[in-house]
């Protein structure tokens, strides 16, 4: 069990984490016809919007209630109502996802009561539009908690309660925030290979996959349908991926009785084998030949790549579940975790991270703790630390804005692990330094009785 070291600094040096509201907005962006709405100031929304646009290189639908000094003092209920009505009139979304910020949370506003009043008073103005509230203050948690809270809120608000007739081939999937567009596409393909029908919530692979629509769309133009969320109770099983999705899966089970299985990571051979075996058991079908072939490819990649991983020191800074995902991958390849830094201590998964200690901190802590590492692993804001230390950087997580295609890189299941092995091995090869003469011939360091050093080629 790793030791969790609390943050002791008064200020963040090169911040690591993104806020809860941003994580909630990202989850709402995985729903078809959705519009995330930040209940706070324009600055909060603008900052999140810039990060999302830079990461995905897409037009991101995101609105704000534009709280100012007066409404901050007197209350923001009117701003919230006006924003919802304007969004409904101009964009006609199927879902408005309200994400609270520190501004209204610190003031102690009853946002849930305000949303309930708006639904009641303005029912005739909001036909066909659902309003879902996620309480996501900036001053605690991070992107991981925001994502999970938004998913839980959508299940609580939209999913039809009670035991329902189950569809034997239908599987509800609750992916963690750290799964890329390519991961979710690959996940869907894997499930469909067994003849099963996945309903993925949220499904960013349908809304943030880099396609260009034929016409301008003011909301999200892909993802999980609102009707699909309502009918989650007809699924035979639920599969949650990541410890932060446990709460959402438990709420779904409480509301509908659908049983769930949680995988803390799918970036490992054993966990992927368990996942594939589960799909085979649910479907009653044998593992397809194509899946077996990809497993064989991964085995070969592990054989080819492990020479480059052995003994390497890795420094990782990421959200808790992604930290666990990556740390277990590197340990499985024969590496050592020299530094593990994360954003918050709210996740139980941190106790399972295979490192001596996990520091709650920022990228300044990563730079200090990872000075002797062979590889830094974090998002694009870690590039300055990598340059100062002269250590290569592997970009993961959010945001990645100085490289293209980060969302199209798979990291899970047989194919994703294979590609991850190749990516890291190639980084090590590209940054390999030629050994010194002393390293090639340790005996050359011996001194003869007369004080001279023998030639490495001479006999002892």
TrEMBL record:
Pfam families per the UniProt record, alphabetical: Oxidored_nitro
Chain intervals with Basic and acidic residues compositional bias: 438-450
Residue ranges of domain Nitrogenase/oxidoreductase component in the record: 19-428
Any GO BP: protein-containing complex assembly
Any GO molecular function: nitrogenase activity
Positions of transmembrane segments: none
Keywords, ordered alphabetically: Nitrogen fixation
Pathway recorded for this protein: Cofactor biosynthesis; Fe-Mo cofactor biosynthesis
Gene3D superfamilies per record: 6.10.250.1090, Nitrogenase molybdenum iron protein domain
Chain segments carrying region Disordered: 438-460
CDD domains in UniProt: Nitrogenase_NifN_1
SUPFAM superfamilies (UniProt xref): Helical backbone' metal receptor (SSF53807)
Task of the protein: This protein may play a role in the biosynthesis of the prosthetic group of nitrogenase (FeMo cofactor).
PANTHER family found in the cross-reference section: LIGHT-INDEPENDENT PROTOCHLOROPHYLLIDE REDUCTASE SUBUNIT B
Similarity annotation: Belongs to the NifD/NifK/NifE/NifN family.
Protein name per its UniProtKB record: Nitrogenase iron-molybdenum cofactor biosynthesis protein NifN
Organism field: Mesorhizobium waimense
Native organism taxonomy: Bacteria, Pseudomonadati, Pseudomonadota, Alphaproteobacteria, Hyphomicrobiales
Record gene name: nifN
């Amino acid at each position: 069990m790793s030791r969790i070291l609390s943050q002791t600094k008064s200020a963040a040096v090169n911040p690591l984490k993104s806020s809860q509201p941003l994580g909630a907005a990202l989850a709402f962006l995985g729903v078809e016809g959705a519009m995330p709405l930040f209940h706070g100031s324009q600055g909060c929304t603008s900052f999140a919007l810039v990060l999302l646009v830079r990461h995905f290189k897409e037009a991101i639908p995101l609105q704000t209630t534009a709280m100012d000094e007066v409404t901050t003092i007197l209350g923001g209920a009117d701003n919230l109502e006006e924003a919802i009505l304007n969004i409904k009139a101009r964009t006609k979304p199927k879902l408005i996802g309200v994400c609270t910020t520190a501004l209204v949370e610190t003031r102690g506003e009853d946002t849930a009561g305000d949303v309930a009043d708006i639904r009641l008073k303005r029912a005739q103005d909001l036909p066909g539009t659902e309003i879902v509230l996620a309480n996501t203050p900036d001053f605690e948690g991070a992107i991981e908690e925001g994502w999970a809270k938004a998913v839980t809120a959508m299940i609580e608000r939209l999913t039809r309660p009670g035991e329902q007739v189950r569809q034997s081939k239908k599987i509800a999937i609750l992916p963690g925030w750290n799964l890329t567009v390519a991961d979710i596409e690959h996940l869907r393909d894997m499930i469909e290979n067994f003849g099963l029908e996945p309903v993925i919530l949220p499904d960013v692979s349908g809304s943030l996959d880099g396609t260009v629509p034929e016409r301008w769309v003011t909301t999200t133009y892909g993802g999980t349908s609102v009707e699909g969320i309502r009918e989650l109770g007809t699924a035979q099983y639920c599969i949650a991926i990541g410890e932060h999705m446990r709460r959402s899966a438990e709420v779904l089970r409480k509301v509908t009785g659908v049983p769930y299985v949680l995988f803390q990571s799918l970036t490992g051979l054993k966990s992927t084998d368990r996942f594939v075996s589960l799909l085979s058991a649910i479907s009653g079908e044998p593992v397809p030949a194509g899946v077996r072939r990809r497993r064989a490819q991964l085995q070969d990649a592990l054989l080819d790549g492990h020479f480059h991983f052995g003994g390497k020191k890795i420094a990782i800074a990421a959200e808790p579940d992604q930290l666990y995902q990556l740390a277990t991958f590197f340990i499985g390849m024969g590496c050592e975790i020299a530094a593990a830094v994360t954003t918050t201590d709210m996740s139980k998964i941190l106790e399972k991270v295979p490192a001596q200690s996990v520091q709650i901190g920022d990228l300044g802590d990563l730079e200090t703790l990872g000075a002797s590492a062979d590889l830094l692993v974090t998002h694009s804001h870690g590039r300055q630390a990598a340059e100062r230390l002269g250590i290569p950087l592997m970009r993961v997580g959010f945001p990645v804005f100085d490289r293209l295609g980060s969302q199209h890189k798979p990291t899970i299941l047989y194919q994703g692990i294979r590609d991850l092995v190749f990516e890291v091995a190639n980084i090590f090869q590209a940054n390999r330094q030629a050994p010194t003469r002393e390293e090639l011939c340790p005996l050359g360091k011996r001194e003869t009785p007369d004080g001279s050093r023998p030639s490495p080629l001479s006999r002892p």
